Amino acid sequence: QVQLVESGGGLVKAGGSLRLSCVASGRTFSRYTMGWFRQAPGKEREFVAAITWSGGNTAYADSVKGRFTISRDNAKNTVYLQMNSLEPEDTAVYYCGRQGGGSNWRKLVDYDLWGQGTQVTVSS
């Protein structure tokens, strides 16, 4: 019923910034927690950040805390990930997801809908 589409990835030098967007294209955007995950080559998809529907609560992986900021604009059906001070270790495909159940917004298995992913490459 809802499709998630990420954009904003690209190639950036270490220390640079990118802003990722995730747009829900359907008409049934509801009060879901949304999250960003990333998957580097040879590794499993890992939690990056999440935000409740109102934006009042957020969570971050320790590796990105202080550098990344998650936000959302429900009127635009969009979730954002502002990434500053990027490091080569941030290189990965970034996915946005919708939490569909469970009680742990850091767990991949609690998300029921994903976008196609957008590539972020940080050069050293």
List keywords for this structure.
about 0% helix, seven-stranded mixed beta sheet, about 120 residues, four-stranded antiparallel beta sheet, 11 strands, single chain, mainly beta
Class inferred from helices and paired strands:
mainly beta
For the report, how would you describe the main beta sheet? 7 strands, mixed
Principal-axis shape equals globular
User: What's the average pLDDT?
Assistant: 93
Entry summary:
0% of the residues lie in helices and 48% in strands. The chain has strands at residues 4-7, 10-13, 18-24, 34-39, 46-51, 58-60, 68-73, 78-83, 92-99, 111-114, 118-123.
Topology:
Layout: E1 4-7, E2 10-13, E3 18-24, E4 34-39, E5 46-51, E6 58-60, E7 68-73, E8 78-83, E9 92-99, E10 111-114, E11 118-123
Parallel strand pairs: 2-11
Antiparallel strand pairs: 1-3, 3-8, 4-5, 4-9, 5-6, 7-8, 9-10, 9-11
Walkthrough of the structure:
It is a single chain. The chain has 124 residues and is mostly beta strands. Helices cover 0% and strands 48% of the residues. The protein is built from no helices and eleven strands. Strands 2, 4, 5, 6, 9, 10 and 11 form a seven-stranded mixed β-sheet that branches. Strand 7 and strand 8 (78-83) form a beta hairpin. The radius of gyration is 13 Å and the shape is globular. The termini are far apart. The model has no long low-confidence stretch (mean pLDDT 93).
